[in-house]
Specification:
The complex is a heterodimer of chains A (163) and B (217). Chain A is mainly alpha-helical. Chain A is built from 7 helices and 3 strands, in the order αβαβααααβα. Chain A has one domain: Butyryl-CoA Dehydrogenase, subunit A, domain 3 (Up-down Bundle), CATH 1.20.140. In chain A, helix 4 packs antiparallel against helix 5 and helix 4 packs across helix 7. The longest helix of chain A has 26 residues. Chain A starts with a helix and ends with a helix. The mean pLDDT of chain A is 79. In chain B, strand 2 and strand 3 form a beta hairpin. Chain B has 2 domains: 38 residues; 154 residues, Immunoglobulin-like, CATH 2.60.40. Chain B has 217 residues and is of the alpha+beta class. Chain B is 22% helix and 29% strand. The chains are: A mainly alpha (163), B alpha+beta (217). Chains A and B meet through helix 1, helix 2 and helix 4 of A and helix 1 and helix 3 of B.
Chain lengths: 163, 217
């Protein structure tokens, strides 16, 4: 197996883990009244951990279909299709076909980082909540990031072979 | 006779390999899902053990919150007369005695034959919302009592009057008979007690507030 294919396989495995593993944990607090909220509405202060697929499931359950579909498109379909095209490109001997596949990949790649920005946005918003609420990235987010980095490495290797 | 070699065998289409990344994604996700499903099972078993601890008998050396969530008295006093003059019911207050000392006194519930108290009570003014801190110990209205083998507590109940308080009765309870959560004692009227029923709540001090709230329900 050549290095490019190894990187695609690694990126796929990391993507699989990144989608299902815990990505973000939210620690809700209500300042000095935290203990009081815990007594009367403990469900409001439950520490929640989400994976990307978990968030999508929750959005579907709460009927936020549009947001759920956007996330499915950008964080699941787009990276998987991109990796499939990479693999397909490694099979190509015809340079014309190879170049056209790379064009498609670069087009799809523009959509693949959307969820990373979404995560960053969520963290910034939660950090600015009153009462000491906080959010923490979990290891799933790092798996996802490494998957993106691996796919960037694949992209660079394929670009270097471009005529 | 045809002779088909590996070289001549039909090759899968070029796009077939493109399915490999998808399969790897599914493999990794499925593997993680399988592992965490096992851990969740183990976690649920541990939680059920925790539930038993919060509903079992008292542990020696442990301190507990104890309060009466409800006290019912008979409709007439120890002399078989009405509690208060006129048609008003008794104004009920109770105390918990431990080692001969009153360690808790409730607020008075006016005109009741069945009086109830919450283990939680917070008196907040509007100005308190502007930064006053209230601790959970301030809010829990109950006696703090440490359980030891052979230990007893006593609940005394009074009818609070302007002139003088009338004794409604008292009941001694062996702590070993108490369990965490709700404890009911149904009593018969006699010459020294007109208490019909006492419902005590026992909560372990130091458990998290969510558990305390669940026990108080």
């Amino acid at each position: 197996m050549n290095v490019t294919r190894f990187l695609i396989a690694a990126s796929s495995l990391l993507l699989g883990l990144g989608l299902i593993a815990p990505t973000l944990t939210i620690y809700p607090q209500a300042g000095e009244l935290t203990w009081l909220i815990k007594l009367f509405a403990p469900e409001e202060l439950v520490i929640s951990t989400y994976s990307i697929l978990g968030v999508i499931q929750k959005l579907f359950q709460s009927n936020d279909i549009f947001l759920a579909l956007i996330l499915v498109l950008f964080s699941v379909f787009s990276p998987v299709i991109k990796l499939s095209f990479y693999w397909h490109a490694t099979n190509q001997k015809n340079s014309k076909k190879f170049n056209s596949i790379l064009k498609v990949i670069h087009y799809i790649g523009k959509f693949s980082m959307a969820e990373v920005f979404a995560l960053a946005l969520i963290i910034v918003v939660i950090k600015s909540f009153p009462g000491g609420s906080s959010a923490q990235l979990e290891w799933g987010a790092y798996m996802f990031t490494f998957s993106v980095i691996s796919s960037i490495a694949v992209s660079l290797r394929l670009d270097s072979k471009k005529n | 006779m045809t002779d088909i070699s590996d070289f001549d065998a039909p090759k899968p289409p070029a796009w077939f390999g493109a399915a490999i990344p998808l399969l790897l994604v599914l493999l990794a996700a499925g593997f993680y899902w399988f592992l965490t499903a096992e851990n969740k099972k183990a976690g649920n078993e541990n939680n059920s053990i925790q539930d038993i601890k919060l509903s079992g008998s008292l542990i020696a050396g442990q301190t507990y919150y104890i309060f009466a969530s409800e006290i019912e008295v008979y409709p007439t006093n120890l002399e078989n007369e009405s509690w208060d003059q006129g048609e008003k019911g008794p104004d009920i207050r109770y105390r918990i005695l431990w080692k001969g000392n009153a360690v808790f006194e409730s607020i008075t519930k006016d005109n009741s034959l069945i009086a109830d108290w919450s283990g939680l009570s917070i008196e907040l003014n509007w100005k308190d919302l502007l930064g006053k801190s209230v601790s959970s110990d301030d809010a829990i209205k109950a006696a703090r009592i440490r359980f030891e083998e052979g230990e007893k507590i006593e609940v005394t109940v009074e009818d609070v009057d302007v002139a003088s308080d009338d004794d409604m009765g008292r009941h001694e309870i062996e702590m070993a008979k108490l369990t965490i959560g709700k404890n009911e004692f149904k009593l018969k009227k006699n010459q020294t007690s007109a208490i019909r029923k006492i419902t005590l709540r026992v909560l372990p001090v130091g458990s998290n507030v969510e558990d305390l709230a669940n026990i108080m329900k």
